[in-house]
Amino acid sequence: MKPLSRTLRIGITIGLRQENESMWTNGIKQNALYLAESLKQCPSVASVHLVNTTAVAITPALPWDQARWPTATFEHAKDNLDVLIELGGQVNANQTAYLKEHGCRLISYCCGVEYVNVMQSMLFDRPMWGYDLFVNQRYDAIWMVPQVANSSQSYFETLRRRPAQVVPFVWDPIFVNQRSQDFEHHGEYRPQPGPKRLTVMEPNQDIVKFCMYPVFIAEEAYRQRPQDIALLQVTNADRLAHESKEFVAVMNQLDIVRQHKAVFVGRHDTPQFLSEMTDVVISHQIENALNYFYFDVCWQGYPLVHNAYMCRDLGYFYEGNDVREGSRKLIEVLTTHDDNWQDYIARQRQVLGRYLPACPEVTAEYERLLTTLLQQPLV
């Protein structure tokens, strides 16, 4: 394919809920910024703007550098775009028509397990849109990150009437570094004497990232090595501990709970909790085998016991739902990790290089995707 000249003006949508919305509320805004950094590396791209689709004003209160990541409302951006990537905020039918009339391509960028979310909404009375569902039929392309393809590709394709294609997952340490700069050792892992503090930080909003198997992994290790575990901390779990009789009943079967070595607390800022409260992180996922949380943890050098097969060379990997294997990995961490902690940090950062915006393979693939997009007729 003939390369494009550096002329493309790209927008990436966000959906602000407040003027000073935290970067750590969810991964969507980080995703938009990482994607912007990646696209800026492409030879065909002249500019990348974030485009807010809500009525929230764009002010200096935003938690990112607007010189580096220019941010505008849809009204201010709509006449200066060649490609709009719908990521964190949806454009409506009239806005779509306007873009198409002015020759702008529209991409649906899918980074969530939408099929799982919709299933749970329907089955468990979690309202999302009610009868007022707008499904855009005029996308020029559907891009999806690798970890959601297995569960949601057909959901995307059938409703949006376009084939979906996998695109590179991108991440950058800029925000975890920024948030951690004032912490001791810039928030990086350092060995601490004595028993270890274990942390589980799953969101506990759905089955995709839930705390039960990580707690079980800690329990299996505690039964064998109680002297090596100071505390198990489970964040985003205070609601479960107070409101779910089933959760409480299961947890009360565990030695680590009965012996008062486990606490179930609320939501915490990830970089701060790692820096101040954590020695080891235990995680489990279903259909979400790449995740910014894993990358933040490993970049900062914390041992991560996880089952994310798409990044099995990070941290300490166990297969599937095998709690016994996970506990063996945890015991390995407890007994040997601190002997080579500096080598571990270096290895994690080397592995994570393949996801960085400036990775040549990432740049080449996004340039190829843009070239293909521009060679297609408008939908």
Question: What attributes characterize this protein structure?
Answer:
15% strand; six-stranded parallel β-sheet; DUF2827 domain-containing protein; DUF2827; Rossmann fold; 379 residues
Strand fraction equals 15-25%
Spatial gap, N to C terminus? 21 Å
Question: Quick check: average pLDDT?
Answer: 95
Q: Helix fraction?
A: 25-40%
Number of separate helices: 15
Assigned CATH class of the largest domain: Alpha Beta
Radius of gyration: 22 Å
Structure description:
The protein is of the alpha/beta class. The protein has two domains: 8-172 and 356-375, Rossmann fold (3-Layer(aba) Sandwich), CATH 3.40.50; 177-354, Glycogen Phosphorylase B (Rossmann fold, 3-Layer(aba) Sandwich). It is built from 15 helices and 13 strands. The strands form two sheets. It has a seven-stranded parallel sheet, sandwiched between helices. Strands 10-9-8-11-12-13 form a six-stranded parallel sheet, with helices on both faces. Helix 7 packs across helix 13 (323-336). The model has no long low-confidence stretch (mean pLDDT 95). This is DUF2827 domain-containing protein. InterPro entries: DUF2827.
